[in-house]
Amino acid sequence: MERLSRRRFTEAATLAVFGASLAGPRVASGRAAAPAPASAPAGSQGAVASAGVALRPLGRAGLRVPGVGIGTNNFGGRLDAAGTARVVDAAMALGANFFDTADVYGNGLSEEYLGKALGARRARAIIATKLGSPMRGSPFPEGGASRGAIVHAAEQSLRRLGTDYIDLYQVHRPDPKTPIEETLRAFDDLVRQGKVRYIGNSNFDAAQVEAAATVSRDARLAAFTSAQNHYSLLTRGIERDLVPACERHGLGILPYFPLESGLLTGKYKRDQAPPEGTRLGAFAKQNPAGVARFLNDANLAKVEKLQAIADAHGHTLLDMAFGWLLSRPYVGSVIAGATRPEQVEANVAAAAWRPTAEVARQIDEATMPRAA
Q1: Is residue 3 in a domain?
Q2: Rounded to 5 degrees, what angle do the CA atoms 44, 46, 47 make?
Q3: Interacting residues of 137 by C-beta distance below 8 A, sequence separation 6+
Q4: Which residues pair with 166 in a beta bridge?
């Protein structure tokens, strides 16, 4: 079947741009308080920035994260070491000190560049990384979350990042070939060793979150703190099953692709080709039909409605994309990529806004999935 799923699309689009608790489950916890954000710039912009990156709880665990997180899938791809350093410097200065990476990003370069860019500031940063995706040159080429794969990947990530601990270690995707107990026991060992402070999952569904929570409780193993999934004003499917499961078990949500590859910045217009240098622009050259499944009349119609709501209330589409997500109590940090310091600044400023009850109602009217 040739239909391109949203998940497969986002994976392919990214590659195109790169070019290639003790009474119950023991929750993984750090041995020190979560680091405070770096000082924001002085003046009014600093006040706005502070509001945008105020620390928020990640589920029911002790980890607190800023409202804006930095997605690093551009590090080692669209950005070299110098470009990465500029983005990291801006993020640290603004208090957006939560960096989400993965071993597979840039085939390891994202972690390497991030570690070098942070340098002596590492203790002031919160680093999340992921394992389990197929990675070129790995002794586990198919990826997965077996004990062997996890132990190997953790050591390699620690080396590349130049650190002796990972704040949040996540399974990048479900592994149907490995029992979840094996995965959780390996994670639990890393937590006991002090190499990992908290654990999370990415791209799990509600049933998989439920199964993992049951194993963690019954076997008294470290439990998942977070769930990282595709979530935005245009992609709200997780609200039906996954969000309730996460709320039952105390997981915080980390939305990725919050801007829908630029759709929620106003970057793409009806009847216009995607601009050069954008994710969809790059992917359109390889798979125009795939792009059309997402850059389509239905999505653009929703964006136009959202733009009208934003205009009527004196705000931007970017404000709405970040502020709406951060108005959800189960959301910890919104993960957004950046290739320039200016993008980090804009995202942090946008994250200071929250919708009123009336605006939230209007947004729901424009974006809530219709019952079949």
Answers
A1: no
A2: 65
A3: 107
A4: 196
Which of 87, 85, 109 has the alpha carbon at shortest distance from 157?
Answer: 109
Q: Give tens-digit pLDDT for 298-328.
A: 889 999 999 999 999 999 999 999 999 999 9
Question: Domain for residue 338, yes or no?
Answer: yes
Q: What is the mean predicted confidence (pLDDT) over 23-44?
A: 40
Residue pair 344/89 in contact by the 8 Å Cβ criterion: no
**Residues 154-195: tens digit of each pLDDT:** 999 999 999 999 999 999 999 999 999 999 999 999 999 999
b/e for 65-91, b at 16 or more Cβ within 10 A?
bbbbbbbbbbbbbbbeeebbbbbbbbb
The angle, 0 to 180 degrees and rounded to 10, between the axes of the packed helices 317-326 and 297-312 is 90
Q: What is the pLDDT of residue 240?
A: 97
Task: Decide if 16 is inside a domain.
Answer: no
Q: Do residues 37 and 97 touch, judged by C-beta distance below 8 A?
A: yes
The Cα–Cα gap between 258 and 262 comes to: 9
3-state class (DSSP) for residue 58: coil
Report the domain count for the chain. 1
| Beta strands 55-57 and 64-66, pairing class | antiparallel
Q: Output the domain CATH number for residue 70.
A: 3.20.20.100
268: annotated active-site residue: no
Q: Report which of 6, 232, 198 is spatially closest to residue 100, judged by C-alpha positions.
A: 198
Which of 105, 113, 198, 231 is catalytic? The answer is: 105
Whether the per-residue pLDDT at 30 is higher than 80: the answer is no
pTM: predicted TM-score of the whole model, two decimal places: 0.85
Question: Strands, DSSP E only, in 93-235?
Answer: 98-100, 126-131, 166-171, 196-202, 224-230
Q: At residue 130, what are phi and psi to the nearest 5 degrees?
A: -135, 155
Residue 10 is assigned to a structural domain of this protein: no
Q: How far apart are CA 278 and CA 256, in angstroms?
A: 17
**Which pLDDT value is given to residue 171?**
98
Residue 287 region by backbone torsions, left for phi larger than 0, else alpha for psi between -120 and 50, else beta: beta
Q: CA of 237: how far to CAs of 234, 250, 262, 331, 357, in Å?
A: 9, 19, 19, 15, 21
Domain interval for residue 171: 25-367
Where b means 16+ CB within 10 Å and e means fewer, 214-248 reads ebbbeeebbbbbbbbbbbbbbbeebeeebbebbee
